[in-house]
Amino acid sequence: MYRRIKVLRLIRAAAAACSLLLVATGGAAAAAPEHGSRATEFTFTEAANVPAEQLRKLSDPVPLSAYRPAHARTVQPPAPPARRQSAGALDLRTECAQQEAAAKTVQGWIKSRFESCQKRPYDLVIRDKNGTETIGRLWFDQWILGFAYDGSRRVDYVSSIENIHVQTVGDEDATKWTIGQSYRTAVHTDTSDPNPQVTDPATIKREELLGVWDTTPHWYLTYTSPDNGPQHSTGNQQRVAAMIHLDLFVDSPNATSHSEVDAYRSRIRFDYAGPVAGKHKGTVFSDARVKLVMSRKDPAVNESALHIYDAIKRPSRTFPSFLGKLIPGEKKPLHRLVDPEKQRKNREKSIKMCNSIWGDYSGTRLECDEYPFASTQEGSTKGDNKYSVRLIEGTDNGAGGNMLNSMFTLNRVLDGDPFYVKITS
């Protein structure tokens, strides 16, 4: 038995010596080359497109802060200066996280004409183009908070890469991976006033190693449009319709980069419309859904609210009455009408209809309420008879009109802008 063990030990020693010789002479048993020198080409791809069995060995992510100490660190460029986020930004982040479905879309969740956000999760895998080998996986969230201003031709964005998690196989090193964000602007001249211009921020691109994003995730962009003073009295509201685009790209020294054009889009409008818009100038997120909300339980406007509710939900109860009448405002938008002469014609036709149905009501506390409103393109003179009139208390009618005008000015609703109506119980 002793002699047999001794022979086995001699065989193992000989095999080890042969292996060392092959390594020293560059033989077939030499250490595998770096990924970058492999004939196989690797690329980033979305994990959702990778078969589940290929992800099993890459299903245990760790935060980048935990990953980095165990791997060789590369020299990192200085991070951009940090800027403390305002209370408004923090509040928007909290609300945005609660709007998960909308927030992860290309346009993000648009809270209002003045606030928008995107929280978009990414899950990327590095694998060879034959789909047989995976060597790394990257998880992160892209956040973008947008702030437009009523009273200024300006919009700000807080852009960031956060919650970075990684996992690698073999000699792949996630500390060498980079993420880039690149912004660009497109001005839509067909929906802008003459000579539309947008001034981009000084820095519109940031490309960093993961470690830099991890320590300084946020950066800031401000877009403005030149302010040439009030010209609205001549018909020039200095409207500038534009789209802010963000392209995202991810790189590794050992893989073809992943790029996504239009990872985020933000439609904005600058204007100097004057008093018709409330504050004389401002900027809005154009895709925000503007709503006039009224309650049937509000004693100040309960008659107005009930009239609108019947017009939208129960048009058969309204006048003029005809089969198949459908009145817009809930599913199809109304559009603001600023022209005072056209508004006057809408009111005249509506009052004439009230008189024909209820007779002379002058000297009473009643007034002729109309829906859609005289200050909309869908008013009674549109020609399709899809409107309603009703006699209601004058003070109620006045309060409803004040609510409508406040909604216009608080949201910078300009001539032709769409808006919706919602009546609550």
Explain what you see:
By secondary structure, this protein is α+β, with helices and mostly antiparallel strands. It has two domains: 36-285, no CATH class; 291-424, no CATH class. The protein is built from eight helices and 17 strands. The strands form four sheets. Strands 1, 2, 3, 4, 5, 6 and 9 form a seven-stranded antiparallel sheet that branches. Strand 3 (109-110) and strand 4 form a beta hairpin. It starts with a helix and ends with a strand.
| Overall spatial form | elongated
Overall helicity: 10-25%
Number of helices: 8
Rg over CA atoms: 32 Å
Largest sheet: 7 strands, antiparallel
Unreliable residue stretches: 1-39
Task: State the oligomer.
Answer: single chain
Structural class: alpha+beta
Mean pLDDT: 89
> Helix-strand pattern, N to C?
HEEHHHEEEEEEHEEEEEHEHEEHE
Layout of helices and strands, plus pairs?
Layout lengths: L1 H23 L17 E5 L15 E2 H4 L19 H12 L1 H4 L5 E2 L4 E14 L5 E15 L5 E15 L9 E10 L17 E5 H6 L2 E7 L15 E13 L2 E17 L10 E4 L5 E5 L6 H12 L20 E2 L4 H19 L7 E6 L16 E6 H17 L7 E7 L1
